[in-house]
Specification:
The protein has 302 residues and is an all-beta fold. The protein contains two helices and 26 strands. The protein has a domain of 196 residues: Distorted Sandwich (Beta-galactosidase, Chain A, domain 5). It is 3% helix and 46% strand. The longest helix is centred in the middle third of the chain and has 4 residues.
């Protein structure tokens, strides 16, 4: 069932099926705010969220578009240089995560489609014509699907690499009980000049109390189904990154803010930070072309 309501005095769209409740805020970056299954949070949102400074709220699933993470030009952050040499600003994680998306009518009761198109404001950062749809779908069996549909509506090639930034509910004192199974081709980190340093992927089993996971990129996953599980409770969340209609996900980033943060972020990304300059995961859309990137989440064992 899909309904409109207010949550924390903000307009929302809710998807629910009796067991699951999913809250989405089109007005704040098409952000999935909270996902609960049987009253237990999977994706978490703080009760004291400061809506006047939404970019600083640690919760939900900020949508990262058109570029993700940090970009540098000559050592200065939040800048990028195009192929003609023009340097432009680009907010960290792009400009979509606090933008107002339009809700598109006509979707089924189990999903909501939200759309962002280019405007004078976006062209100051990103001089391209685009349509970017975020579609959130709740399916039977506690399956949540989020798809990005990126279209080039202009007459020149369009560069992009979008991503997710899921904040999952995880009490910090239980962090050692959780392990992420994520085989990949290599690990990587961004260094201060914006470039990526690679290292050998030493293990496919990643304990979440390992501090070296923070801000690490697990590059080119070798399995499209990634399981995140709790050894004591049996809780499990499975990521499905292998939908046949989807472009490939380039990396999965792991992050949390501090040792006492009661959340953990597991973030499927289409590219790496600063890819517009180094090319790792950079995608190009020809005029008139559309690409779809699908991330599925199975919360049936949460």
């Amino acid at each position: 069932m899909k309904s409109s309501l207010h949550f924390q005095n903000q307009p929302m769209v809710e998807l629910s099926d009796g067991e699951n409740k999913v809250l989405v805020s089109p007005d704040h970056g098409a952000r999935l705010l909270r996902w609960e299954r049987a009253g237990r949070e999977i994706v978490t949102w703080p009760d004291d969220a400061d809506w006047s400074n939404i970019l600083k709220v640690r919760g939900g699933n900020p949508v990262l578009f058109p570029f993700l993470a940090r970009h540098f030009v000559e050592g200065k952050n939040e800048l990028w240089r195009d192929s003609a040499g023009t340097v432009r600003p680009m907010p960290q994680h792009g400009f979509a995560r606090d933008a107002a998306f339009a809700v598109i009518a006509g979707e089924d009761e189990n999903r909501v489609r939200m759309r962002l198109t280019d405007s004078e404001a976006t062209r100051a950062f990103y001089p391209f014509a685009f349509q970017f749809d975020v579609v959130v779908r709740l399916q039977p069996g506690s399956l949540l699907e989020i798809r990005f549909e990126t279209s080039n509506t202009g007459d020149q090639p369009l560069p992009y690499y979008a991503g997710h930034h899921f904040y999952f509910a995880l009490p910090h004192q239980n962090r050692a009980d959780w392990t992420l199974h994520l085989p990949c081709a290599s690990w990587g980190r961004q260094v201060p000049d914006g470039s990526i340093v690679h290292e050998t992927a030493a293990s496919e089993w990643l304990p979440l109390d390992d501090p070296t996971l923070i801000d690490r990129f697990q590059i080119r996953p070798l399995d499209t189904r990634l399981a995140w599980s709790n050894s004591k409770t049996g809780q499990r969340l499975v990521f499905d990154l292998g939908h046949p209609d989807s472009v490939p996900w380039y990396a999965v980033t792991t992050w949390t803010q501090s040792a006492d943060s009661d959340f953990y972020c597991i973030e499927p990304w289409l590219g790496l930070p600063n890819a517009i300059h180094h090319g790792e995961g950079l995608r190009w859309l020809a005029p008139g072309q559309t690409e779809i990137a699908i991330c599925g989440l199975d919360g049936s064992a949460w």
